[in-house]
Every structure is written in C-alpha cells, then in structure tokens.
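Structure first, sequence second, as always.
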C-alpha cells in the first residue's frame, strides 16, 4: 500500500481532537480557567490513532502515526517536564507487556496481577516490585524511544528507584495514549485500557482517586491518576483519560502550602470544564 494511502486510512475518522464537542482550543482554555490560580496546569487533548491493517504493515503504520500531529495543548506549559507521580505506571505496564509478548521476559500470574493492581488501584508496592524486577529505568527509556517522547525520562541518577520522580510532559502523555493502539500490540493496548477503565474509587493506600477527570467525564472512561508530594517544594496531581477515542491529559503543580483538598478541587474543576466540552463520546 502506498504510504500516502496508508496515512489516509490511519487518520480516517480521527478528525480534530475535539470533534463531536467543543474545539480542542476552547476545551483547553476552559480547563485552565477553571483550574484557577492555585498553581499551574498543563493540558493536552488528542484522538487515538486507528490501526489501518494488521500484520507486516504495522511498522510502517506506527512510523507514519508518530510523524502525524497528535492534537492540541496549552503550549509551553504542556511541553514542560514534570514529575510523573503514578503516571509512570502506564509506561511500565506498556513496556512489560511488550517485552512479554516478544518473549524477552516471562510474566508469572502473580506479576500480571501486580501489573493490573498497579494500574487499577495505583498500587505503589506493586509498582516498586515491578520496577526492580524489570529495570524501571530501562522501561521508561524504551517507551520514550518507541513513542518518540522527547520530554520523558527516568528519575535522576542520584535518586535511583524513586519511580514517581520520572519526568514527562502533558504533550508526551497525550502522544503516548494517542499512539498506544498503533505502536503497542492491539491486545496489549486493550488490556492496558481495560485496566484503566477498571480504576477503583480508592487507591491501594486509601487515597480517593476520584478527582480531575475521574468521576467528571461521562460514560466509562479509561483513567489513570497520579499524586505526590513533594519535589522541590511542589505538590503534583495528575489525571488522564481516554473516552472513546478522545484523549485528555491534565498535569498540575501547586506549592506545597496548597493542601491536597484544594489541589484536588482545582483539578476536578478543570476536569468538569473538559467534560462540559466533550459532547458525545468518540467511537471505539
């Protein structure tokens, strides 16, 4: 198939990131305005790529997708590297599933359960065990290379094992989720998205995960939440979601003096602004 024809198939039906609702730029502006003055908010929206064919065309398809524009964001804020907190668990899960499918690692039933809990319940001990077992630094670097994530990397060398201090950008997370069905094996992509759709109201440590986009978007979005305190005196709360084929990423940073309650309320207000502009969910 000619490359030009493949690109048409790949993007067919994708449309602008905000199709079916408010334009993406309006959604981004509304989210930033709703977040308020408590700190800074990075926003990115995208639409997941559609796999054109199966089999040998996959490598060309993935390469074409990586070169395509992924969506819209709020400029420098969306390109600014921030600590991932628990969002790094998405990168870890994708890489472990990819390596297991290739046969380079063998996943036990228990390790697969850890993967699921790491995503659904944001289980930190599960993530720590998998980080050590499968070399977390390697995982983050491999995903950044595979998805062309220029602002994503492992924690600084002086803090090995502190996986929450890996860095990423709103733009990179949106790109990762938009390309997931094309770059990853489709079964692995669906597994990860299913675990995200099964996110529990309370995390493994008891933290209420219902903030940001979780609990504000209609339907059954696939979500992943992140929170941590504190890096360089800053508190971070993040929320990402895939609703149909629509991807939304909210990464927030507030001073340590701003408590979790206030930070959660601000991010949830931003999530509600996004929900107001989503319109009907995109098709799967």
């Amino acid at each position: 198939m000619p490359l030009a024809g493949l690109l048409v198939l790949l993007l067919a039906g994708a449309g602008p990131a905000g199709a079916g609702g408010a334009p993406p730029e309006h959604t981004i502006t509304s989210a930033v305005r709703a977040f308020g003055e408590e700190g800074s908010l990075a926003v990115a929206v995208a639409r997941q790529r559609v796999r054109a064919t199966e089999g040998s065309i996959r490598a060309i398809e993935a390469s074409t997708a990586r070169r395509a524009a992924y969506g819209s964001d709020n400029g420098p804020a969306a390109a600014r590297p921030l600590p991932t907190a628990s969002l790094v668990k998405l990168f870890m899960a994708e890489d472990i599933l990819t390596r297991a499918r290739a046969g380079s690692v063998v996943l036990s039933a228990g390790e697969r359960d850890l993967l699921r809990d790491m995503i659904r319940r944001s289980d930190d001990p599960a993530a720590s065990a998998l980080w050590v077992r499968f070399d977390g630094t390697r995982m983050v670097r491999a995903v950044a290379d595979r998805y062309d994530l220029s602002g994503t990397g492992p924690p600084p060398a002086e803090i090995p094992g502190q996986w929450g201090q890996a860095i990423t950008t709103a733009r990179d997370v949106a790109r990762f989720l938009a390309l997931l069905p094309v770059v990853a094996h489709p079964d692995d992509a669906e597994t990860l998205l299913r675990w995200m759709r099964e996110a529990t109201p309370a995390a493994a440590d008891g933290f209420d995960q219902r903030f940001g986009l979780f609990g504000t978007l209609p339907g059954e979005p696939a979500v992943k939440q992140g929170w941590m305190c504190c890096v360089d005196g800053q508190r971070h709360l993040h929320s990402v979601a895939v609703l149909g084929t629509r991807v939304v990423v909210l990464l927030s940073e507030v001073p340590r003096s701003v408590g979790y309650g206030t930070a959660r309320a601000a991010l949830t207000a931003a999530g509600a602004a996004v929900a107001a502009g989503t319109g009907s969910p995109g098709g799967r």
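Margin note: Residues 135 and 161 are 9 Å apart (CA to CA).
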